[in-house]
Specification:
CATH superfamily of the largest domain in chain A: Response regulator
Number of strands of chain A: 12
Shape of chain A: elongated
Oligomer: homodimer
Helix content of chain A: 40-55%
Strand content of chain A: 5-15%
Number of domains of chain A: 3
Strand order of the largest sheet of chain A: 2-1-3-4-5-11
Largest interface: A-B, 59 and 59 residues
Structural class of chain A: alpha/beta
Radius of gyration of chain A: 26 Å
CATH topology of the largest domain in chain A: Rossmann fold
CATH architecture of the largest domain in chain A: 3-Layer(aba) Sandwich
DNA sequence: CTGAAAGCGCTTACAG
DNA sequence: CTGAAAGCGCTTACAG
């Protein structure tokens, strides 16, 4: 707070009252042309920058929103952040971007901070069961919109994508290629997307007449390293899967890293389906078959919804469609697989 | 600003004055044990959350910093953001993350916003020549630290990495493998890194006795698409380069995408050296030879420096070392290259 | 259209 | 250790 030119200084220089200066500077039409001219010039000469904090204190409104994301290094969330922030900027609002680091504790910390900053509303991709600070925040009446993830049983408008459909399409595609031993690297079960995608995988297998096999599931945490570890462990099985689905973009990278390490040819020795169609996945070779959704649209949409909530409107939740982009990382089951002989499936 | 419990409410409930409540809540030691107990309980019962904006107005200090980055979707800057934000959080400071979108206009907009928010200081990876808002901001006396990029002639402490050395090592490595037609995809010349890396490339060539060839240079903007376009155009030359260096991580992805498109075998038909060793580049196959620096260290360091500046200490600028990580994307010049016969080099 | 005054919620010398 | 009072910088009914 180095900057000490106040509206009073401007008023004085312009020869008007602070009230008039304020009116001119905030575009209140009840001002004379001469007042406008004088005040504007004085403000320019003095390099006046309004103190947004004093202003918000008085106005009881901060024109600031909180954007609470689990991991800014995840390209998927980076896209959401970019889109939401740009939308907010266009609407004249400042974004406080908070990086929960996939940690509920840090999420709580940031929630506290956002309340202290008196943001007008929050867009969050939440974590946990809403038992802690999140519930408290909602109870405070702070307008909230969920993006990508939700908390079950908490009544907050949300923009999510159709995880069920995405995973179902992925499983079907693999089954169609003859795969029956399909591994799954799931994300944190503390999140709705982690749970949904895993359940969708199980359900899709059952529908295809394949009994879900626990030994083919690995629990990651949406970060690259966990995907790497998970894939190593799956591929180390005496009967390894012939295909693997990873439940987010970073874990997908980990799976690909593991394949590279082991010298597996993706799309031949092992079929891989990733999540999120990012710049990154698009640079991989062979091209990755991915479950694709649109993070930029989610971010933009989430901000639009928050504005509606702030405007006192009721807003329904939205589920965005998802598609399976088929490239070269998926192929028929290799004949020489250890698992080709012993898999029986569908018995019940 | 829905939350209306004020420190006065807490004081009243605790049976003390607002002054005492304030002292307790902000850890001022001049309080009695009994006052502490009563105030804390009242605050808990009322779910009091201090109004950080009122507080900062009074204290003339916001405990908030601005972090102005050119592109949050760039994994390199995402890492810087993550590290700087975590460091700030640990120090009890809030980060206002601003995404300039590689646009000087948007940078100016955010600079204005940060001044209005009265942040205590700013960490920026700046753009342009500092003729606009940036100079104005510095003139205001707002503490500033540059990260990754600098503005020449502007006296602000900075954390950068040794671009000269990085590019020099890359060129040497390629020359050592026999390459003489080395393409370069450079970033925006509006940035110090864009300019430095290009100059370093030219200089390294000269040192190796190779005359820089304009037709082998392409001007990108640090985004994926521009790398893709640049690489396509280089590879479309009647005498294409046998090796390409890309000047940032996103453009590197673009170059790799172009190679995939054209079915080139990276490391054989074409050698590629990228910039930044991110999760992404580590998932590529063949493994990418990259100029590697440490964005997390830069972010942490930048925050530490800003704290020093805020503490009134003089801080020297730092240039972090850079290394060339050699993987499989670089190899000897292919014998069947169109350029193998006509290149003469070193004539002057 | 304009100004004097009050007040947003907090902290901090000051006096005790 | 505690409280009354002032003031951070702004905006906005209110009266004119």
């Amino acid at each position: 707070m180095r900057q000490n030119v106040t509206i009073r200084d401007v008023a004085q220089r312009a020869g008007v009252s602070a009230a008039t200066a304020s009116r001119v500077l905030s575009g209140n039409p009840s001002t004379s042309a001469s007042a406008r001219a004088k005040v504007r010039q004085a403000a320019r000469e003095l390099q006046f920058h309004v103190n947004a904090r004093a202003k918000s204190l008085r106005r009881q409104q901060t024109d600031t929103i909180g954007l609470l994301l689990p991991d800014i290094r995840n390209p998927f969330f980076a896209e959401i952040a970019q889109a939401a922030e740009q939308a907010a900027l266009a609407a004249g609002m400042t974004t406080l971007l908070c990086n929960a680091n996939e940690s509920t504790a840090q999420q709580d910390l940031y929630l506290k901070l956002l309340v202290a900053q008196r943001v007008d509303g929050i867009i969050a991709a939440p974590q946990g069961d809403g038992s802690g600070k999140l519930d408290e925040t909602i109870a405070l009446g702070l307008p909230l919109v969920f993006v990508d993830r939700v908390i079950e049983g908490v009544d907050v408008p949300s923009v999510t994508s159709d995880n069920w459909s995405g995973v179902r399409q992925a499983v079907r595609h693999l089954v169609g290629l003859g795969h029956r031993r399909i591994g799954f690297v799931t994300g944190s079960q503390e999140t709705s997307t982690g749970r949904e995608r895993l359940q969708a995988y199980r359900e899709a297998l059952v529908r295809a007449g394949i009994r879900p096999d626990k030994t083919l599931i690995r629990y990651g945490n949406f970060q690259t390293e966990s995907g790497l570890v998970a894939a190593r462990s799956l591929l180390d099985l005496s009967q390894p899967p012939t295909a693997v689905i990873a439940a987010d973009s970073l874990m997908t990278l980990g799976v690909v890293q593991a394949c590279n390490e082991l010298g597996l040819v993706i799309g031949e020795t092992l079929s891989v389906i990733g999540y999120d169609d990012t710049e990154t996945t698009r640079a991989l070779s062979p091209g990755l078959t991915v479950i694709s959704h649109d993070p930029a649209a989610m971010g933009t949409q989430a901000f639009a919804m928050l504005r509606d909530v702030l405007g006192g409107r009721r807003v329904p939740s939205v589920v965005l469609p998802v598609s399976l982009v088929i490239r070269n990382s998926t192929g028929p089951v290799p004949l020489v697989s250890a698992s080709a002989t012993s898999e029986s499936g569908a018995r019940r």
